[in-house]
Write a structure and sequence with these properties.
heterotrimer, A mainly alpha (317), B alpha+beta (171), C alpha/beta (899), A: 317 residues, mainly alpha, 11 helices, globular, C: 899 residues, alpha/beta, Ubiquitin-like (UB roll), Dimethylsulfoxide Reductase, domain 2, Barwin-like endoglucanases, 6-stranded mixed beta sheet, 6-stranded mixed beta barrel, 17% strand
């Protein structure tokens, strides 16, 4: 038991970190494909070693901390983002029994961990002692706090339907029907909130390079910037795998493939959607983003929760 | 909402389009004739330096990366004693070419000037001067200017009358 | 007086013309033939404006702005389409023959024609036919001639002939063939020819020394400077590029030089770029290579602490440098580095100006005098710009008379000159040799300086001065004295000019007596005294011992170390004395910028900054302290002399200089230590002065090549130098508006790239600069008590048998030390040192003109070439003063002579 436990942790870490790294290459290739370009194609076959090259470059860069920055916090911030996302993966069931911590409050743990991620943005922006960084951080904080509300509310749908906070339990509860069908609205809200949570395009307002240089990580370079970068791709993977777990039956699928493979395949589809979004969407204005969240998604998610609860009550009675 | 999905779909369809990229080192991009690349100093049809050291290029340069010293040869021609362009600062805006009254400084369709050492990007006159008239063949500044040089005395330029005889009172 | 320009009311000063009024109001109206100093002739038709009869008049009529006086309630329009079209057409015509030359023209970028063409909007040439061309002339080493560019505005001849009295530039030929030049190629004779480069609105006359290292105006680093050529202290702008000084341009000062400079001032700058410059500190003769600066300073400081040190100041060094040296060696050990005769004359001049009741005029005031009496001065050669002022002064009286008759304003130049014809105001010249101003004089008197001084005393006596009676004058002389006295009494603003030129102190005393006598009569005379060098008066104000006592002190072993400040002692006393001086000095520390004969004898060389590389203050002959500013950061360890002194003082722990580091510090010490100089505090803004938090940039906003000029050395640009001494910056960053008058590095205004932009800096055209002209007067007439007349006139000049009395003969080109490093000036200067003698003396001593004669002054013989000069009185000889090879230095002197 002990050994298997370590194998799972090790395996999950190994796969996730490599996935995040691979995603950098994948995203650049896919963006290029959709924009009629090649993307990185020089280092290694299909340019796959670009990630290695980039990482090496990041490691060899000067470990620069601006003299005006709050040094401790400045170093601490990028570690928070990676740590919090990796912690959230602890509860994700990759396959039957392949889960680090099969908690019965898995959904809440996920929410808690992804909320912690906002600290990295706020602290990073604050510690940079730079107006653009601070603006980015403030935007990031308000955006993530706002969208967390709907994300949580949307999550309550599958929880009500399955009657459990345990993610493996939710997956098992979808054996009859994936929750995408009863929870289409919830899925859409969760997906949008997930984009905002990972501050990916079109919701990358904390970075907004056309207005804020590079937003909260303007002052970051080298491997500290790399941590933010990796954190972002881990976030994509996390949201994608949560979507799969909550709405697309997790590892469930026809038996000719093992559950883990199904999980991975489904997750990749959503990662692709994330990338496609980046390739095609313009960035909204900040006030539009907040307005959309509070005036559209918030009522909708409440409606979804009410409806789901009502239907559930009706069926159970 | 629909338009967002539609644009996502259209972008997705680009997957099946042909790629526009030139695979640069193996496949050279065709450069237009007026491409603003490497800066050169050209010569006039007689083979003389076109640059007369008027400093207008240096004044026009937004990054101040041109410096020169005007000098005058015994034959009356003006020329730059030294002419230096710091290509590590140059932004290839072409203002120098626009400012040049003698068509001497020209931006050519060539951009392959990368160096490993920044110092090597500092070009002196001998690096810049080419044995060609560049984009404006046939133009010779001294043929339209009023200054006398060896081989073109006063009154011998285009649209010039012979020098006035100061001692004559005839109309 | 209210005038309406384009229906807007403006206040205008009466007596001006419309062009002046518009320019004074800051409006842009193009012009060519008008020049603020030359007046209007209405020739170029460029300043046309529409003038309307009254409010209802919509048609109006075209008039030339420069020819129409301002009237109350006058209505005019600059923007009227008819007037604009007219101006554009006029420039179109002026430009028909103008060559396609701007790229190769030295005027480009500071060209009035370019500015006016842009201003009128004439952007494309309509003329499609052949252009007229001219042959050029070689006008000597100062000016380049390119007649094709001429637009026939006539400014050059109006300046050269009418204003400066030149003879050899004229206008030739007729109709559209008129030609401005000499009748044949050759050097322009006028000492003010260099001004043609600024007077000419285009590139016909351009500065030839600038051409040899040509740089556009926008590419130079400029700083306000003061000419070092003579004691008048004309204001200049000095421009630098690539570490060498490129050009001296006029810097308008309404009180001093106005719009013009003399050729010594304009071209005498090339010593700054000389290969004779001392650039590194050195111990001599042991090492000629570079020595660590700190090491040298330590050695000098140790020497100062242990030895008995004296300091020799210099009239060509700034007040600050002299003061720093004086404090460094102690007041009792400071010697003025002037020749003994210069010392006597300068201290006499200071005494006259400080204790006398008569005001000494600025150059501007001198030009407004209506009667001039010059005693023993060849002004063209000793104070050239004062000669130019006198040329204007002689026009005052006839001009006033003529204007009373023809009722025209003074600026109606052609009409007034026509009315004045050859009439001149009273000008009297007493000088041994002919001067260029003689042609204007009502009476000229020749003779030995003592004789002339006696006659000057006689004039003073005629005016009622309380002096010993002058006897033995001829009736003609008495009559002349009476005539002069009457003319001076009749004048409203008589100007008396004396000075160092004759080398005779009685001449200066006579001038003072005449002025004081006039003052006693209740008149308002002006007394101007020329002095030998740029800071002679400032050095005299600081005070110190005579140079010959320094030699005694060394000889007697009371001192063993000498610090020499910016001084070639071989120009201060005769060779054998200075040789002896160096023989007795164990250690000679020289702070100077040029490797001269004194430098050869020095044991330690410290490189000093020239006027272009240093900040400092000099006092001109008017007692006006003026500041010059560092133009650029020099090569090597060159720095201001006062900074060397401060750094030595730091090592030697000299208490009086403790804690002083920059210009403001030393000026604070100077003004607190010398109460008579206290007003220097208000001379110029201090180093912390900022406008909108910004410094004043030395470089124009179009300055080019910053990222390339040093790229051949290192592609990474060095950090720009910072200036701790002044509010000027060495870069193009800073406040872009109008700086305070003492800090104007160069004149520029939007649309006005040439020096004509000075209009925008003046309170009124030809008046003071905004905020007052730079400079602080340190001397005002002594108001209490009467005139301290000099009672004793000199004895009659009697030749001493077997001896000859040698007087100095100064020349604008050659007599000044530093300007002789300019090749063009050196070429002008006599190539050998002559002894001018009366032909009868030559005959008596059996000397063939052109042969060598031996002259023996006390214990010292030298050989000179004798030349006949029939103006020299018998027993008197003249020798070219100040030439580098001149063997007799301390003039005048009594000498034995042998063939």
């Amino acid at each position: 038991m002990e050994a298997q436990y370590w194998w799972i942790i090790g395996g999950v870490l190994f796969v996730l970190l490599n996935t995040a790294a691979g995603l950098i290459w994948l995203e650049r290739r896919m963006l290029a494909l959709w924009q009629d370009r090649y993307g990185p194609n020089r280092a290694g076959p299909f340019g796959i070693l670009i990630v290695l090259a980039d990482t090496l470059k990041l490691f060899f860069k000067e470990d620069w901390i601006p003299p005006f920055a709050d040094k401790v916090v400045f170093v601490f911030a990028p570690a928070v983002v990676v740590a919090s996302v990796l912690m959230a993966f602890a509860v994700v069931p990759f396959g039957p029994g392949i889960v680090v911590a099969d908690m019965n409050i898995g959904v809440l743990f996920f929410l808690a961990m992804s909320s912690l991620g906002v600290y990295s943005i706020v602290l990073g922006g604050w510690a940079s002692n730079n107006k653009y960084a601070l603006l980015g951080a403030m935007r990031g904080a308000s955006q993530m706090i706002s969208y967390e509300v709907f994300m949580g509310l949307a999550l309550m749908g599958p929880v009500i339907l399955s009657g459990t906070f345990n993610l493996s339990g939710i997956v098992e509860a979808q054996r009859g029907m994936w929750y995408i069908f009863p929870q289409l609205l919830g899925f859409v809200i969760f997906f949008i909130a997930g984009i905002a949570e990972t501050h990916r395009l079109p919701f990358d307002i904390p970075e907004a390079e056309s207005e804020l240089v590079a937003g909260f990580h303007s002052e970051y370079s080298g491997m500290k910037f790399g941590m933010f970068f990796i954190g972002e791709y881990l976030g994509i993977t996390l949201i994608s795998s949560m979507i799969v777990t909550l709405y697309f039956g997790g590892w469930l699928g026809p038996a000719f493939l093992p559950g883990v493979i199904w999980f991975v395949l489904k997750t990749f589809v959503f990662i692709m959607v994330f990338i496609l979004l980046r390739a095609s969407m313009p960035r909204p204005r900040y006030d539009q983003l907040m307005e959309y969240g509070w005036k559209v998604l918030f009522p909708l998610s409440l409606l979804n929760l009410l409806g789901t609860a009502a239907v559930k009550l009706f069926i159970d009675k | 909402m629909f338009s967002l999905l539609r644009s996502m779909w259209l972008v997705f369809l680009h997957m099946f389009h042909k790629r526009e990229t030139y695979q640069y080192p193996e496949e050279k991009a065709p450069l237009p004739a007026r491409w603003r690349g490497r800066i050169a100093l050209t010569r006039d049809p007689d083979g003389g330096e076109r640059c007369v050291g008027c400093y207008l290029c240096a004044a026009a340069c937004p990054v101040d990366c041109i410096s020169l010293q005007a000098a005058e040869a015994p034959d009356g021609r003006r020329y730059p004693g030294f002419f230096r362009i710091n290509f590590s600062r140059c932004i290839f805006c072409g203002f120098c070419e626009e400012a040049c009254p003698t068509y001497a400084i020209q931006l050519l369709p060539d951009f392959e000037m990368a160096e490993y050492d920044r110092q090597n990007l500092v070009y002196e006159k001998e690096d810049l001067l080419i044995n060609s008239q560049g984009k404006y063949p046939g133009y010779n500044y001294y043929r339209v200017a009023g200054m006398a040089i060896a081989g073109k005395d006063k009154g011998e330029a285009r649209h010039e009358e012979p020098p006035v005889n100061v001692r004559s009172l005839l109309p | 007086m209210t005038i309406y320009i384009d229906n807007k009311p403006y206040e205008a000063k009466p007596g001006k013309n419309l062009l002046e009024a518009c320019l004074e109001l800051g409006l842009n109206l193009p012009y060519f033939c008008w020049h603020p100093a030359l007046g209007s002739v209405g020739a170029c038709r460029q300043c046309a404006v529409k003038v309307f009869k009254d409010e209802d008049d919509k048609t109006g009529r075209l008039v030339m702005g420069c020819m129409e006086p301002v009237r109350d309630n006058l209505r005019l329009s600059l923007e009227d389409p008819g007037a604009k079209a007219f101006r554009e057409q006029v420039i179109g015509w002026l430009m028909t023959n103008h060559p396609h030359d701007c790229a190769v023209c030295d005027e480009g970028g500071s060209c009035h024609l370019q500015d006016m063409t842009v201003m009128t909007g004439h952007t494309y040439r309509n003329y499609r036919f052949s252009k007229r061309t001219y042959e050029n002339q070689d006008l000597g080493p100062f000016l380049n001639h390119e007649m094709n560019r001429c637009i026939q505005c006539y400014r050059c001849v109006r300046f050269y002939k009418d204003y400066a009295g030149g003879k050899d530039l004229n206008v030739f030929a007729a109709h559209n063939h008129v030609y401005f030049g000499r009748c044949e190629s050759g050097r322009l004779e006028s000492e003010f020819s260099g001004n043609l480069a600024e007077v000419c609105p285009t590139g016909v006359f351009t500065d030839k020394t600038l051409k040899s290292h040509y740089t556009r105006k926008w590419d130079m680093t400029w700083a306000p400077s003061v000419c070092q050529g003579c004691s008048l202290g004309c204001n200049t702008s000095a421009g630098e590029r690539y570490g060498s000084l490129r050009q001296i341009a006029n810097r308008y000062n309404g009180e001093v030089n106005g719009y013009f400079l003399c050729d010594r001032g304009r071209y005498g700058y090339e010593f700054v770029n000389s290969d004779q410059r001392i650039l590194q500190p050195a111990f001599r003769p042991h090492s000629n290579g570079t020595v660590n600066k700190e090491h040298v300073l330590d050695q000098v400081a140790a020497r100062l602490k242990n030895g008995r040190t004296i300091g020799i100041g210099s009239p060509r060094a700034s007040l600050e440098s002299n003061f720093a040296l004086k404090m460094l060696v102690g007041e009792d050990n400071f010697y003025l580095g002037m020749s003994d005769s210069d010392h006597d004359l300068t201290s006499l001049a200071l005494k006259i100006l400080r204790d006398g009741p008569v005001r000494t005029p600025s150059l501007q005031e001198a030009g407004e005098a209506d009667a001039v009496f010059i005693l023993g001065e060849d002004l063209t050669n000793t104070a050239p710009m004062l000669a130019l002022a006198v040329r204007q002064a002689v026009r005052r009286k006839p001009e006033a008379d003529a204007m009373g008759q023809i009722h025209l304003a003074e600026w109606q130049d052609a009409a007034v000159r026509e009315a004045v014809q050859e009439d001149r105001g009273p000008l009297f010249i007493f000088n041994t040799l002919p001067t260029k101003l003689d042609e204007l004089a009502e009476a000229v008197q020749r003779g030995a300086p003592e004789q002339l001084a006696r006659l000057g005393f006689a004039v003073a006596q005629q005016l009622g001065a309380d002096i010993a009676p002058i006897t033995g004058l001829t009736p003609e002389e008495t009559a002349l004295a009476g005539k002069i006295a009457a003319a001076l009494l009749a004048a409203e603003r008589p100007l008396i000019i004396g000075g160092y030129g004759s080398g005779c102190d009685h001449m200066m005393k006579a001038a003072a007596n005449v002025a004081w006598a006039l003052r006693q009569k209740g008149r308002n005379p002006l007394l101007s005294l020329t002095l030998p060098e740029v800071n002679s008066l400032g050095l005299e104000m600081l005070g110190g011992h005579r140079l010959d006592t320094a030699i005694d002190v060394l000889r007697q072993g009371e001192a063993d170390t000498v610090i020499v400040l910016e001084n070639d002692l071989y120009r201060r006393a005769d060779e054998h004395l200075i040789d002896e001086f160096f023989l007795h000095a164990q250690e000679v520390i020289l702070i100077d910028h040029l490797y001269n004969r004194t430098a050869e004898k020095a044991t330690v060389l410290l490189p000093a900054g020239t006027f272009a590389e240093a900040d400092g203050t000099v006092v001109n002959n008017e007692g006006r302290a003026q500041r010059y500013y560092q133009v650029y950061v020099p090569k090597g360890d060159v720095q201001e002399s006062w900074r060397w002194c401060l750094q030595i003082a730091e090592g030697a722990q000299v208490q009086s200089l403790h804690g002083l580091h920059n210009l403001d510090d030393i000026d604070w010490a100077l003004t607190t230590g010398m109460p008579s100089l206290a007003s220097l505090q208000h001379l110029a803004p201090h180093a912390d002065f900022r406008i909108n938090g910004q410094r004043i940039p030395r470089e124009p906003h179009r300055y080019s090549g910053r990222t390339a000029m040093q790229a051949n050395v290192n592609v990474s640009e060095p950090k720009p130098a910072e200036d701790d001494d002044t509010p000027l910056s060495f870069t193009m960053e800073g406040y872009r508006g109008e700086p305070p008058a003492p800090l104007i590095p160069f004149f520029w205004s939007p649309g006005w790239n040439s020096v004509q932009s000075v209009n925008k800096y003046q309170q009124e055209i030809g008046g003071h600069l905004h905020g007052g002209d730079p400079g602080v007067r340190l001397l005002e007439p002594h108001v209490n008590g009467g005139a301290p007349f000099f009672h004793e006139a000199p004895d009659t000049f009697v030749p001493i048998p077997g001896h000859v009395h040698i007087m100095p003969v100064y020349h604008i080109f050659g007599s000044e030390e530093l300007s002789m490093y300019t090749p063009g000036i050196a070429k002008h200067a006599a190539d050998f040192c002559c002894l001018y003698l009366n032909p009868d003396d030559l005959a008596q001593w059996n000397i063939t003109p052109g042969n060598w004669v031996t002259v023996e002054t006390d214990h010292h013989t030298c050989r000179l070439v004798a030349t006949a000069n029939h103006w020299m009185p018998r027993g008197l000889a003249g020798v070219n003063a100040g030439l580098p090879q001149s063997p007799v230095v301390d003039l005048p002197v009594l000498a034995k002579m042998q063939a």
